[in-house]
Design brief:
The protein is mostly helical. The chain contains 23 helices and no strands. Helix 14 crosses helix 21.
C-alpha cells in the first residue's frame, strides 16, 4: 500500500493555520459585497447594469494589482505580499466611512477598488504560499484544504449582509422615493448607507489584527534571501508562461470560473424575488443557504480528491452546474431556487482546483504564474456586466445562460488536463499528479 503524502507538516502547521484566516477574510469581503449590487440598485435607483459596476470595481482591482503583487513576491517574499495586501485591504474598508458621509456611489466604488486591490495582493501571495508549505504532490489538496475555510468567511460575509445591511433597507419603491422631499430622501439614504458602512469598518479592524499576527509569526522559509539570489527576469518568465498551453488554458478557465461564480451569487436575490416572490431579506436567506452548501461541499470535495483525480471531478461538477443553470431558466419557481442553491456545491472545488492544476510544474515561474491566475479573476468584473445587460433587456431568469456557458468552458479545461495526463488505469491521486508533472516537464 502506498503511503499518502501528508497535506501539512508539523513545522508548517502554525503558519498554515494563520493563512487560513486570510482565506476566510477575503471570503467575508467578497460575499458581503455580492448583495451590494441589489442594495445600491435600490438606494441610488439604478439599473442592473449600473449597479453591477460594484463587481466591476471589485474584480477589476484584482486584475490591476495582481502583477504588482507578483513583483513583491518575487523581489521579497510571500509573507511581504500577505502583509501589503492586508494593509491595503484594511485601508479600503476604512474608506467606507467617508463614502457613507458623502453619500456618493463613486466614492463607494473607489473604496471597493482599494479594498479589493489589497485582497488581490493578499490572494496572489497566500495561494502559492500555501502550496509551497510542503510536498508538491500534495499541493492541490493542501490548497483545497486552505480554501475550505474560505467558505467560512463567505458564510459570515453573507450573514453580515443579511443581518446588518438588507434588513435596514427602506422598503420604499423607486416611485415613492422620487416623491419624497430632498431632506426626507437624504435621511433615508443616509440611514441605509450607514448600515452598509458599519460591517466594512468592523472588518477593517479585524484585518489590522490579522496583519499584526502575520507580522509576528516566523516564516517557515527565508524567502527574502532566496528571492534576492535569483535574477528577476519578468520578460523571460512571461514568455515561458505564455508558451505553456496547460497554464494558458488554466488562466482562461479561471476567468470563466470566477465569472460564473460571481454571476450566480450576485443576482441570487433578484432571481429568488422573481421565482418565489418576497423581498431582499428572503433573497439574502437563500444566498446564505448557498454559502452553507458551498462550505460543506468544499470539505467533502477535498476528501473526494484523495480517490478521484481533481481534473475529472472538476469536469463533472462543471457540467452538473451548467445543467442546473439550464433548469433555472426553465423552472423559475422553487425548483429553480433549489437548483440555484445546488450550484454552490459544484462551485466549491473549482477555484483551488484550477489554480493548483495550472501551477503544477512551473518552478521558478510559479510566483508570476500565480499573479496571472489572480488576474483571471477579472472574469468576475466582466461576466456580470453581460448578465446585467440581459437582465435589463430580457429578465433575470434567462440571464443565467451566461454562467452556464462559463461552466461549459471550465469543464473543457478539466477534460484537457485529463487528456494531458493520459493515464489508462486507475491509480492514486499522488501518482496522477506526478505523471502530470512529468508530462509538463517533457514538453
Amino acid at each position: 500500500m502506498q503511503t499518502k503524502t501528508p497535506i501539512v507538516s508539523r513545522d508548517m502547521l502554525l503558519p498554515f493555520i494563520l493563512l487560513t484566516v486570510c482565506f476566510a477574510a477575503w471570503g467575508v469581503a467578497a460575499n458581503m459585497t455580492d448583495p451590494l449590487v441589489k442594495v445600491f440598485s435600490k438606494i441610488f435607483t439604478m439599473s442592473s447594469l449600473q449597479s453591477a459596476l460594484v463587481q466591476f470595481a471589485y474584480y477589476g482591482a484584482y486584475f490591476c494589482l495582481a502583477i504588482p503583487a507578483a513583483f513583491i513576491n518575487k523581489r521579497y517574499s510571500y509573507k511581504t505580499g500577505v502583509l501589503v495586501g492586508l494593509g491595503c485591504a484594511a485601508a479600503g474598508a476604512f474608506l467606507f466611512y467617508p463614502a457613507s458621509q458623502t453619500m456618493t456611489y463613486g466614492f463607494f466604488l473607489m473604496a471597493l477598488f482599494v479594498m479589493a486591490g489589497g485582497l488581490s495582493i493578499l490572494e496572489t501571495s497566500a495561494n502559492p504560499y500555501v502550496m509551497a508549505m510542503g510536498n508538491e504532490q500534495s499541493a492541490t489538496r493542501r490548497l483545497n484544504l486552505a480554501q475550505a475555510f474560505n467558505p467560512v468567511g463567505t458564510n459570515f460575509g453573507v450573514f453580515l449582509a443579511a443581518t446588518l445591511i438588507l434588513p435596514n433597507l427602506n422598503q420604499a419603491s423607486a416611485e415613492e422615493r422620487s416623491a419624497m422631499s430632498m431632506t426626507e430622501l437624504k435621511s433615508v439614504i443616509g440611514a441605509e448607507l450607514d448600515a452598509v458602512m458599519i460591517p466594512y469598518v468592523a472588518m477593517a479592524c479585524v484585518l489590522l489584527l490579522v496583519w499584526v499576527a502575520v507580522a509576528l509569526i516566523k516564516t517557515p522559509v527565508d524567502e527574502a534571501t532566496a528571492s534576492k539570489a535569483d535574477d528577476i527576469d519578468i520578460a523571460a518568465s512571461l514568455k515561458r508562461l505564455v508558451a505553456n498551453k496547460h497554464y494558458r488554458f488554466g488562466v482562461m478557465a479561471q476567468f470563466f470560473n470566477v465569472g460564473a461564480q460571481t454571476c450566480v451569487w450576485t443576482f441570487t436575490i433578484q432571481y429568488v424575488m422573481k421565482a418565489i416572490g418576497g423581498d431582499e431579506v428572503q433573497g439574502g436567506d437563500v444566498l446564505q443557504y448557498s454559502m452553507i452548501v458551498f462550505l460543506i461541499s468544499r470539505f467533502v470535495m477535498t476528501w473526494v480528491m484523495q480517490y478521484l483525480y481533481p481534473a475529472r471531478l472538476l469536469m463533472v461538477m462543471s457540467l452538473v452546474a451548467a445543467g442546473l443553470c439550464f433548469v433555472m431558466t426553465q423552472s423559475p419557481n422553487i425548483v429553480g431556487v433549489v437548483a440555484l442553491i445546488s450550484i454552490s456545491a459544484c462551485l466549491s472545488l473549482m477555484f483551488p482546483t484550477i489554480y493548483g492544476i495550472a501551477l503544477q510544474g512551473l518552478g521558478k515561474d510559479t510566483k508570476l504564474g500565480a499573479a496571472g491566475l489572480v488576474m483571471a479573476i477579472l472574469g468576475g468584473a466582466i461576466m456580470p456586466l453581460f448578465q446585467a445587460a440581459i437582465i435589463d433587456s430580457a429578465g433575470i431568469v434567462i440571464s443565467y445562460i451566461v454562467p452556464a456557458v462559463c461552466f461549459i468552458f471550465v469543464a473543457g479545461y478539466g477534460l484537457f488536463d485529463i487528456k494531458a495526463v493520459k493515464s489508462p488505469q486507475k491509480v492514486s491521486i499522488d501518482d496522477l499528479k506526478t505523471n502530470t508533472l512529468k508530462t509538463n516537464m517533457a514538453k
